[in-house]
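Quick one - first record:
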Amino acid sequence: MSSYQILCILCALALVTSVISSRVHKLQETVAITALALGMSLLLLLGGKALGGEVYGYFVVGLEKLDFQALLLNGMLGFLLFAGALQIRLSILKHQKWEILILACVSTLLSTFIIGGLLFWAAPQLGLPLALTHCLLFGALISPTDPIAVLAILKKMGAPEDIAIQVEGESLFNDGIGLVVFVVLSQMAFSTESITALQVSALFIHEAIGGLIYGAVLGVLLHHFFRYCEEETQLMLVTLLIPTAGYVMAEVFGVSGPLAMVSAGIIIGNFSVPKYFVRQERVKLLTFWSLIESFFNALLFLLLGLLLLLVTFKAPLWWFMFLAIPLVLLARAVSVLLPYRGFRMVKSYNPYAESILIWGGLRGGLALAMAMSLPQGIVVDTSSGVELRELLLVMTYAVVVFSILVQGSTMAGLIRRSNAVPVNAKQGSVSARG
């Protein structure tokens, strides 16, 4: 079967799984889809062994043909980030701008170094000594909270408004920051030439700042292009230019596509939509992008479960898999609690703000896509033949599955308790999504 045929089958399966999961009322939809897909993967693994491996091998070959990394990083990610940014309101976001900036930048970097440093210390104790740059790579790919997982779950749970602003804003921006840090560390880890601190700084600025500026320019250009559209259908379809051609051109210019999508989406949502879309058309536009978001979310979380078929669980990797979960949670807790000590000196927040930010820092397909982009053939232990890519992929998959199934399914209790806090104990603000 061709990649297109496989994708069509997966899309149909995603939609069917989405309908089935909607009947599981005790679980949030994305959690239910991932759980169902994991169940299907386990059945395929067991069935494959019982039937001589032919069925299992057929599905594995199909998933490998699909190239999950390219599908997410070069395809779905642009659409999902633009859809999320389109609903952010600058007038509301400005009340939390410093918190979001610090959480997206400082906390992401802090978490990267905490995870990398602790893994560098712990790896030799588990029999697989790792280079510091390789440990930092894992820190970089797993530290950003995944905007797709976070927005999909929090959007339907009714989190307190002040916390929703921070979680949503952070998740939209820190994935771009994380990707940039990952690219920089990859250059340091795998480049055959030495790289200086000046070159690292220049690469970071070019990717991150360049992505934000490029996205802003893209948004402004499209804003002026809207005036030539005569029908509401044209207005809606023209917005597709940004996550398609706009995202591709970001790669050509060597800037961060994810940050560009967020930047462009905020401009279109705050300036173009009020000017060119009347109220009825505005509702249709948001419905249009909500449909795209829901469809890609269903496909992504289905793939997350099915990727179990592509992960190799060798015996030496089990301890690293179990280590990764508490390691990431510890780094998330430190990187949230430290900034909040400063935040609470100048503002009042919901008493459950830190808990929701820590436990709601979900990881998803973005981390897996980055792990799958690592080069193959770099052996970290010659006796067992363990490669760096498979080690970091197993650790990442463990964190992602725990994040979505355990953290995602238990978020409701925290949110209910936070909503029960009296209004005068909360910070007065409104949601960034409108």
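second record:
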Amino acid sequence: MNKIFLIIQREYLTRVRRKSFLLLTLLMPVLMVALVFVPIWLGRISSGENRTVMVVDESHLYDSLFRSTPQFHFVHEKAVPKVTDLPEDVEAVVHIKSDLSLNPNALEVLSHKEVQSDLSNHVGDLLDSAVREQKIERYGIAGLDSIVSDMGSNVEISTAKWNDKGETTTSSADVAQAAGFFFTLIIYIFILTYGGMVMQGVMEEKTNRIMEIMVSSVRPFELMMGKIIGVALVGITQLLLWGVLGGIILSAASGIVGTEIPANSANAASLLSGETAIFSAIFSLPLGEMLLLFVLYFLGGYLFFASIFAAIGAAINSQEDSSQFMSPIILLLLFSMYAAMGSASNTDGPLAFWGSLFPLTSPIVMMIRIPFGVPLWQELLSLVLLYGTSLAMVFVAAKIYRVGILMYGKKPSLRDMLRWLRY
């Protein structure tokens, strides 16, 4: 056991001291926060240019709506000019041919190039409300505006959960799905990234013939487990540092970019109410159960796939050979993600049930189901199957590993690897 600890220490310290580890750990949170805030910041930057737009209203019903803004300077004309007579500084011509409440197609925006969406949206916003008022006035019914607004309102469904005492708490399927996908994505990325790191490390040491020296003093099983656990600790360290650094950078970026608060008190109250409902829905989730099962599925899933990656790294001799062995594993992980997505809308359906029990997909699919509530017997059965299969896979991988690390120069076939299991 002491030798395993020494190998874990070697793997961990060797990797965390690399410059690539330090650079990736420091740069990744910056890049992730930049992907969120840079588009927001760039979107708020105005060119400061006041664009000229010509308005030709032949109906003379909408002229007063087009008032200049800091973004658009509207110029009113009686007729549409010829293309050759159009001033160069005019970006577009808004041509209203007749009453839009009678003929909705009597509007066109002309330009030498593609009409920008912000101009189209601005013109549409101005005319939509005016045309709506025209139509309501034409009916001559008192209070018709209020009637139409009332009829256009949608039914709002509030969801809640009952506990055993009959008390209700706010719930949200969207919040539950988001929480499940968050944990699912962490497991998926961790397995794919750090499992591949195990394979690369084994393959490099095998190619450099370091393995031949190491196996003279430690057992191959101890070497494999030490490498798997050491890489896992490196990944966990990196995730924790990303979380801390990302939180710090995110707070700083929020202070710099700022958040827009609605000027309308009703909108502000609505926004505050929505945020309160979201937090209430989050705290109504089984957070303790989710965190505990996340750790268990995280460790079980990583142990299963990392042992496969270690066996692959021991069996191959070059990077080119890894693709044919990696493809089935990647396809299996992708299938797990698609199964999780398909289960999100029906977490008690057949796909969700069997996907959360099958050991190859359960670490990813089960995390989608847990926020919605899963019977205890299903969770226990899923964990027993996962860890039982993982230990069996470790045993199989160790047999391939102990022979493969000393087989250099020959590309093994599936028959060779099956023969190694009988040694």
